[in-house]
Amino acid sequence: MFANVALPVPGLEPLTYRFPAETPLAPGMRVLVPLGRRAVIGFVTSLSEKLPAPLRETKAILRVLDPEPALTADLLRLGRWIADYYRCAWGEALTAMVPAFTPAPAEEWCARLEETGAKLPNRGLALTIWQRLEAGPLPRRELLANLPASASQALSNLRRRGLIASERREAGFKADPIAVSSQGTARENLTLTADQARTEETLSLAIAAGGHAAFLLHGVTGSGKTEVYLRAIAKVLQAGKGAIVLVPEIAQTPQTKDRILARFGGLAAVLHSALPPKLRAQEWRRIRHGQARVVLGPRSAVFAPVKNLGLIVVDEEHEPAYKQEDVPRYHARDVAAVRCQAEKALLLLGSATPSVESFANAQRGRTRLLTLPTRVDGKTLPEVRLVDMTREVDPVARVPLFSQALLTAVAERLANREQCILFLNRRGFATIVRCPQCGHILTCPDCSVSLVYHRWDDRLHCHSCSRMYPARPACPRCGSACVRLGGSGTQRVEDEIQRLFPAARLLRLDQDAIQRRGSLEETLRQFGQGEADILVGTQMVAKGIDFPNVTLVGIIAADTALHLPDFRAEERTFQLLVQVAGRAGRGGRPGLVLAQTYNPEHVVLDLARTHDYQAFFNRELEHRRDLEYPPFSRLAAIICRHRQPEPAWKTAQTAAQRLERALSAGDALLGPAPAVHERIAGESRFQILLKSRTHTGRAKVLGALSGLKPPGGVRLTVDVDPLNML
Ligand code: ADP
Ligand code: ZN
Ligand code: ZN
After folding, report:
1. What is the pLDDT of residue 80?
2. Is 528 a pocket residue for ligand 1 (Cβ < 6 Å)?
3. Biggest CA-to-CA distance, the chain
4. Where are the beta strands (DSSP E) in 352-503?
5. Would the CA dihedral through 466, 472, 478, 479 be positive or negative?
6. Are 521 and 183 in contact (CB under 8 A)?
7. What is the per-residue pLDDT for 181?
8. Gap between the Cα atoms of 389 and 557, Å rounded
9. 603 Cα to the center of ligand 1, angstroms
10. Phi/psi of residue 441, each to 5°?
11. Which residue has better confidence, 422 or 476?
12. C-alpha span between 545 and 561 (Å, rounded)
């Protein structure tokens, strides 16, 4: 027998290997095969009895790794789509779809009841055995424990009559319900708001109808979207199907996790990205065997082998975290859409600030728009005020971190025992180090990105390659002895606030704080229980957290993302402001948001101030139309990298020439040009951007790159639908 095996090797189509006919092998199983001098793990994609035509001999499979397929036929096909769309090898796509291979645990034979309608035993050992199995399958050993020796004969009789079947199971496996968090309360009987009820009704009808349908749920922050997801999942389960819920980052949405576990208990599986490979593999098997039917996880959970898939929810669908920045460079939302279509399931995207692409799809009728325009319980959206920082600049030319308005508001909350969140967008080049003499900004020589000062180890860090530098170097441009440390990172915000309000209890939430103090969940829990008055943080505090006692959100620099060299800069700014603002006033008292800015006149900030998504969308769509950006075009970024600029540049030029020749009407090529971050981790990077009207047009142009062999050491990557123009 012969098997076609997809290997995780760039540019490689499946190869054929032979195996003995008695080996139980099926498509979707992993096998170890020889490739050159290496042994590589690949996926069986199909079997054949004869060797395909041009081949006369072939190597043998070294070892079969899975006792049963790791991927279903549907998922194999989804992998093929990913490989074709995102331009990678089928084997690369498949490898990304399952947890890393860990040897399957020992198995044992279990007996289980078979529904046959045959006459049931009504007495004796047969009845005892039957009753023991009613609660679920049991290993033979346990089934016959404490029974007389003749029980073995009784079991054989039952099996012969077809009343009991046996199957292989993971040894020692217990379908133990996950500990249900005490925080979550299963509020099944909560009365839906009129808007929620209308939405639920629509979804229920679609679930009852079966088949594929796609929805975009646009609901303001605190409008009860999560409750709608939970109801839809419950309906899907009732229909005997399973569901997947995608979130940008599990650790950042502990409340969603708690609510899902509280409601679905042991039927739920959580694919935490920090789960050790063994546990991940075990959860995976629980899903594949149908023991877990609701899966919560980050982007890779879109591949969960849920049996009889009925629904995929993509929460906060606008989040860039759904895009994988590594091969395969897939976008989980878009993969979810394809998977739902193929498996006749419902797709439910949700967001308070949908991506322009998704909202445009809804407007064009490709997805159905559902809206929750108000917060539950008649709570109002927080009032957002823009604070003009240009007026705060004091005569000594020291730019203050906080406006008077913000300090007054913080003092009021502290006096009233209410909580505040102070938010700072680190990505806006905030903690840069500047020479006081010549104004030079210190950058990493390897990456050309600004260095960031960190107080805990008193060093400068490159956030791109992780290199560290001494904190007080001489200025590389003018030689001035000591450049000024400072800027305004979260640490400085924390320090200054503590200095100004010595009695306030502070917590900080950013990547460094987590690395040093441990859990993000723990910090959020402490804040939620009122163990601190002020939470200082980066975008981590912007996500789906729900703290009723927070009445003030201070945005230290609302415009930092506005000047990023990316056509989505304004969209990101709008989304971030609305999301952060959404953390305020979720309890009984109204919330206030103070957004400090140096561009108080900017339209996008003003639209965020009034929470006017529709107006923002209309304006943004016009821009995109004028500049032919998505959704009016399909993009691909071609990046060439090498330690030396010269070879990378040459390859980029060759690639550009090939692409140029393949262009047709409606396609455009930008570059090659140095990437925004010209050097990352000691590599020079050049970028070409391809814009095409259609997906097929783009695929045709990109086809011109196949067979291009970059000279030694140059890496050429294609990013289809790139998200970050860096
Ligand atoms: P979103 O996901 O839209 O931000 P959530 O689903 O988190 O909103 O809901 C916000 C809060 O309102 C949560 O504490 C939730 O339990 C509560 N909630 C949701 N629906 C209702 C309802 N119909 N009645 C009362 N409270 C609700
Ligand atoms: Zn660096
Ligand atoms: Zn200088």
Report:
1. 98
2. no
3. 97
4. 368-372, 383-388, 419-423, 452-454, 459-461, 468-470
5. negative
6. no
7. 35
8. 9
9. 30
10. -100, 125
11. 422
12. 22
